Amino acid sequence: MKKNKGFVAEFRKFITRGNVMDMAVGVIMGGAFTSIVTSLNEDLLTPILGLFGGTDFSYLSVKLGSGENAPLLKYGNFITAVINFLITAFVIFMIIKGLNMVSDKFKKKEEEKPASTKICPYCQSEINIKAVKCPHCTSDVE
Known about the structure:
Mean pLDDT: 79
CATH topology of the largest domain: Non-ribosomal Peptide Synthetase Peptidyl Carrier Protein, Chain A
Number of strands: 4
Strand content: 5-15%
CATH class of the largest domain: Mainly Alpha
Distance between the termini: 74 Å
Largest sheet: 2 strands, antiparallel
CATH architecture of the largest domain: Orthogonal Bundle
Structural class: mainly alpha
């Protein structure tokens, strides 16, 4: 009985940790994002691409064999899935690229601050940039 309480408590601790909750939110958001990309592809891009190809990709298929029960190879659905994947990958790439640009701008602002310290060439201690004598080794510093 005591082991079950320990197991349940351990499971409760695991499931309420931040990483698991973040993952759950990510999966839910991924599902919502997938429906947006699918709609973008099916409702906007496929009809536009259909103008150039003369057909809608989702209806492209080849009948393998003859008769009523012959298998149907729906390669149009595969093309649609590949387009969905490429659109999703591109959108995620653009989001990450945008986040990296914003992050780099903040890093540049931090790097642009003038240095307030320098390294003593004799004892390698960090000293004030205006110091002419090292407070650690008392050497003259230019």
